[in-house]
Specification:
Strand content of chain B: under 5%
CATH architecture of the largest domain in chain B: Up-down Bundle
CATH class of the largest domain in chain A: Mainly Beta
Order of helices and strands of chain B: HEHHHEEHHHHEEHHHHHHEHHEEH
Distance between the termini of chain B: 44 Å
Helix content of chain B: 55-70%
Radius of gyration of chain A: 33 Å
CATH superfamily of the largest domain in chain B: Cytochrome c oxidase-like, subunit I domain
Distance between the termini of chain A: 38 Å
Number of domains of chain A: 3
Structural class of chain B: mainly alpha
Helix content of chain A: 40-55%
Structural class of chain A: alpha/beta
Oligomer: heterodimer
Strand content of chain A: 5-15%
Number of helices of chain A: 14
Number of strands of chain B: 8
CATH superfamily of the largest domain in chain A: Cupredoxins -  blue copper proteins
Order of helices and strands of chain A: HHHHHEEEEEEEEEHEEHHHHHHHH
Largest sheet of chain A: 6 strands, mixed
Chain lengths: 531, 620
Amino acid sequence: MMYLIAILIAILVFVIVVQIGKVNELAARLRGEEKAEHDGNEWNARMMLVFLVGFLAFAVGTSVYYYPYMLGYGPNILPTIHGPQIMQLFNITLFFTGIVFVITHILLFWFAYRYRNSKDRVAEFIPHDNKLEIIWTAIPAVVMAILVVFGLVAWNDAMSDVDADGEALGYVKVGTGDVENGTKNYIEIGATGLQFNWILRHPGRDGLLGTKNWQLITGSNQLGQDFKDSKNIDDIILDELVLPKGHTVRARISSRDVLHNFDIPHFFVKMDAIPGMPTYFKFTPTMTTEEYRDHLSQFPEWQVPADPEEPDGPQRWEAFNFELACAELCGKGHYSMRKIVRVVTEEEYNAWLDQAESTSFYLNEIRGTDDDPFLSRPTLQIEKRIREREAKKAKPAPSDVPAPTPGDTPAPEGQPLEGGETGSIQPLNSGTVGTSTTTTTVGNAVQSTVNSATITGTNVVNSATEAVQTGVNTAINAVNNAANSATNAVNNAVETTKEAASSAADKAGDAIDKAKDKAGEVKDNLLNNPK
Amino acid sequence: MADLKHNDGLLVEEYADYLYDGFHDHHHGDKYQTGFISHYIFSMDHKMIAKQFLITGMFWGLIGGLMSLVFRLQLGFPEASMAWLKPLLGKWITISEATGVGTLDPQFYYALVTMHGTILVFFVLTAGLSGTFSNLLIPLQLGARDMASPFMNMLSYWFFFLAGAVMFASLFLNTGPFSGGWTAYPPLSALPQASSGSAGGMTLWILSLVLFVVSVLLGGINYITTVLNLRTKGMSLWRMPLTIWAFFVTAILGLLSFPVLASGFFLVMCDRGLNTSFFLNEIYVGGQALEQVGGSPILYQHLFWFLGHPEVYIIILPAMGLVSEVLAVNARKPIFGYHAMVYSIMAIGFLSFIVWAHHMFMAGVNPFISNIFVIFTLIIAVPSAVKVFNWISTLYGGNIRFNPGMLFAIGFVSLFISGGLTGIFLGNSAIDIPMHDTYFVVAHFHIVMGVAAFFGMFAGVYHWFPKMYGRFMNDTLGKIHFWGTMIGAYAVFWPMHYIGMAGVPRRYYSFSTFDFSNQFAATNEFITIAAIITFGFQVIFVINFFYSIFYGKKQTTRNPYGATTLEWTTAINPGHGNWPGGIPAVHRWAYDYGKMGEEFIPQVEPVSEKEKEFDEAHPH
């Protein structure tokens, strides 16, 4: 029925359109074709002027309306050093193009109106005018030259790399520089895109990002960090990007699968993430998130509830955050790769780092597991064997022991979280990473299940063995000096706290067994019912 | 054939004096193309092939336009139920059991975006525009009987048709059509594990476009050869109308750039099927670390944009040519600065080959390289500005008739200015940092090469419709179409500048994921409504077109616009070979309007003594 109506409407539209055309043609014939043509011509000529006025008014009106929305205008000041420079170039370009836009449009539509057809006139024969043509070739050429010069200066400023001329600029790695005496520090952070999330990595105290290798990627080691590289030992996987105000940040951008683009709109930061070829973008935040919120709070359009359905909730300016997005089409979840960027003062940053360094990915998730490349070392072997032996005794249910869940931001609305198909959108170091990995093939499913079991076990161990954690914490200072000594220190700590750990490890071992059983079950299921 | 005899009669009356028999023993009692199949389907007549290109292009234009409406609905009304599209889109609409609300699958959203881009860029604005008017006008305006190789010309259309058929088939695949954007960047396009659209959909997409490249090359070789070799007596290169110059340079661009695209596609196919790694490097996808190492995704981007950038000029140059001609004819004035116009076309054509990396400023190429591309890119603004100023000056002092063709030509100039100026922002790499891949880019290219090229095409269709069908399109409907489209197009694309300046990336299925994009619900709603209405005006055009083929006002005189060019010396319904008997000889350039008080002087009219004196006094 619906379709019948739709078809009828379509036919009706067709008939109406044809009739309009026919009626006008007939009316023209009745009035006399010449007169009708003349009237039509006059009407369209007048419309040219109407359109000109309307269009220019529309252009101005929308600019005013959208003024508070655009970055670099109204409340949306640019909190980086290179942002305002680029904005200045934008405004210079806008100035020149604006003049051209208005003048050419006025001439175009005015000429169209002014020289509308008249029977009393023959058009003038003006085939060309060399002087005019030279002028209007030269003027754009000069303007373009100006824009190129300004543009290239801004571009090369913005894109200069800290490594290439690091010495000249006085950049040194964070922690090694003498900030009080004016040496500039830069902080290198890692951002790796994958379908559909960003993995953010802080280099830890040593300021150096460890190497990674895509062949080492597993369910528990999502970046494929090579833990034989001591630089990796203190690297921290972040849920949100925390940056100190006033420090140069060099984002080392890479991708795990397809192209992504590291895009922080408010910072004017944008760079493709490419598998197998790290790129960079260097920027310096000049305002903290708090300062930016305070700034926004002065504007009425930000003094409204952030969520219209919750009038008593936080105001828009209070809920403001800098956001990291993806700006290169990467698949069906492209629009959902959101991370928060939090800019803080230097003191807050240092306090944060003191606290965050204990969350080193290696020490928390890798050490003493099958992913640990140092597992063959006697101390780690002992730790592992103790775990296994003790595991046979105690029997706590795995669910009793909460896996350490990071304070991950809630999944944004519309993000395709459901089902294994969507891939690794789940919080990174939560215990369920493996289970959410793609299950398009049975093999993958099995692999991920096994991974999940392993990680769950690992996490159980970690959270259960508080004593081990204590040992880990005591070892952290050693980590700052060298990874190997750190490992040894940790192992020593383990030895001394062996007894305290034993009962907890017991429980953990049992959890591992259970998880493995479960993995076996799932594996069987999957093998029997591939779908 | 009866028609042809009738034309013979008319010919003698009006233009017989100017004809000379350039090709003896040609077309006397020709039995060519008498059957239905050889006349309407496997036709080798350039005029019929032009119509085939046009109508196929219109078909694809409607499909591509409807696709954009579906994804515009998703953006404008994200909360609304799309359950009513379920019968058409099937599994791509998921209906929630609890609420009954139908939502568009993101995968299919991206497939729609990809198909919209591919179809509009290649099938409509390349084949539908350049294919139609190069075929129709090159022989007619040059005084040739047909293309240099009518057979290749026929093949050109049928390869295009085949390309379309394959693309159409890909819409019905279980894994969906290709969904990685019209640029098809690997690794996304090379890895079926990364996106279901990159499975069979991508294979068919590449196959279709390779067929399309063949079509463009067959056509292009033909256009170039015809322009160089089949000009009639007296038609020197500097007497050719600007349409022909534009088609000529367009064909050269296509010939030089499309094979590079094909090579890029070939390498993608190798990466997909033969485990090579031209574009793949250190990838972990679908729970597996791939073996391929050493390739570079950026290499593909170089290959793609080496076509991709000339491609936008392949689209816009024919539109410029058509507009130049329509403006001059209806302003009753010579096109201002003919030589400057030709040199601008050449300059734009040349520069289009050395600016491709301006699409890649933020793609991870060495920032130093961008310096060079910024310079060349901004230089393009100079010949473009010259063209704009010349079009405007053509109107100055004219005696302008506002028929639909002329309206669209004027609209084209406005759009080309608006869209071209934003190109100056984007071409400057520093500004490209915030603007790259945002809605600002979407606004820019839709206005400057999407809508503007469409306006050029509409100007051409309205203007040369009598040459194609011997009838006029309805004037009133044409004017409604123009004003609706002009206002509608700006309403759709102008606000996108602001969305882009707020930093919103393009190709987002949902605006609500991020706070910075979540403020544009009302704007998106406005754009969607404007898009639907604007599409409605295109339906009026389609109705007008097909209705007028059969019932339009009949063309009664050979040269209804008082134009100077050769196509108006043919019969109202020219037969095969265009001019029965001899072909016309040319004595002057194509723009003698208003000269010495004459309304117009056709190219076939010999230069009088008085005129020679005039020319000496006013050299040009």
